[in-house]
Fold this sequence. Notes:
Number of helices: 4
Membrane topology: Single-pass membrane protein; Single-pass type II membrane protein
Subcellular location: Cell membrane
GO biological process, one term: protein transport
Distance between the termini: 86 Å
Number of strands: 7
Shape: elongated
Keywords: Cell membrane, Membrane, Protein transport, Transmembrane, Transmembrane helix, Transport
Family: Belongs to the ExbD/TolR family.
CATH topology of the largest domain: Nucleotidyltransferase, domain 5
CATH architecture of the largest domain: 2-Layer Sandwich
Oligomer: single chain
Strand content: 15-25%
Order of helices and strands: HHEEEEHEHEE
Amino acid sequence: MKQHFANLIDEEEAQIDMTPMLDVVFIMLIFFIVTATFVKEAGIDVNRPDAATAVQKDRVSILVAISDTGEIWINKRQVDVRAVQANIERLYAENPQGSVVIQADKLATTEVLIKVMDAARAAGVYDVSIAAQEE
């Protein structure tokens, strides 16, 4: 009889409960997904002008692209110039530490560029940069 109980105890001790380990793995997965930064794209390819003083900008949260025809793109969507401020306000509210980078084509007019810069500043974002290619 004692041998029978000893065998039952050995069988119970031999099993490993995997549930706590799976809980930890799923919590780590959620943590890495939430804290990951994703590459932002404006939505169109822009031929940026060359600049000798161009530097890499970190923590970019809002990319605005201006095409050679004056079209404005934010988050892969074409946006009217009157809606730029509202879009920047919404994106800035999601990530207040980020900045605005304007990717203006070489052939884009300065009028559209200034309107986008004014809209960004009106939205409360004063860290506005213009993208350029390194020479």
